[in-house]
Design a protein that fits this description.
single chain; 191 residues; mainly alpha; two-stranded antiparallel ribbon; rod-shaped
Length: 191
């Protein structure tokens, strides 16, 4: 690049050129060498101006290095994005599978709970039926006991009536035997 073209460059390019190493005799020197202060008589410290002999190839090489670095960075970022995307997809699949498994377990638990409730209701119905049968059997036993008591009472009453009748019959028989012998016109058994 010529010295006449450098004032036309933008400040950013000027700054990039200023940071590039300067070649002296075919060898690149430290850029700080271009900024070394120089004392000249009564003047204060001053920076040497950037030489205008920086070739365009240096700027192109710097730009190429920046582009290559940018591409490497973009590629690394893309690989990182791909890795994170793959991990996210794996996590989504895992989460979905876990959610499906949890839903299946929840459905099984609900089905088991429903079966237990149904069995509990059936057992409660059977228990109530058994209790009802027990009460009916108890009532039947009480009725049978009462019927037995009533039968014994009737038997005792009938036995008492029979004894009373037998007593009356004996009295009647005794009375008849006592009075038949006294009937007039009827011979006695002794005659």
């Amino acid at each position: 690049m010529s010295a006449a073209a450098s004032p036309v460059l933008s400040p950013v390019i000027d700054l990039a050129i200023a940071r590039l190493p300067v070649r002296h005799g075919g060898k690149a020197s430290d850029p700080r060498e271009t900024e070394s202060p120089v004392r000249s008589g009564s003047q204060a410290l001053a920076l040497l101006p950037v030489p205008a002999i920086t070739p365009t190839s240096e700027l192109g090489a710097t730009t190429l290095r920046l582009v290559e670095h940018s591409m490497e960075t973009i590629q690394a970022l893309q690989e990182r994005v791909d890795t994170i995307s793959a991990q996210a997809r794996d996590l989504i699949r895992l989460t979905h599978r876990e959610r499906v498994e949890q839903q299946a377990e929840l459905d099984r638990a609900r089905a088991e709970a429903s079966a237990w409730r149904r069995q509990a209701m059936e057992l409660e119905i059977r228990m109530r039926e058994a209790q009802l049968r027990v009460r009916e059997a108890e009532m039947a036993r009480r009725d049978a006991d009462q019927a037995a008591l009533d039968a014994r009472e009737r038997a005792r009453s009938a036995e008492g009536e029979v004894q009373d009748l037998e007593a009356y019959l004996r009295k009647i028989s005794d009375y008849l035997q006592a009075n038949l012998g006294r009937v007039p016109g009827r011979p006695s058994r002794d005659a």
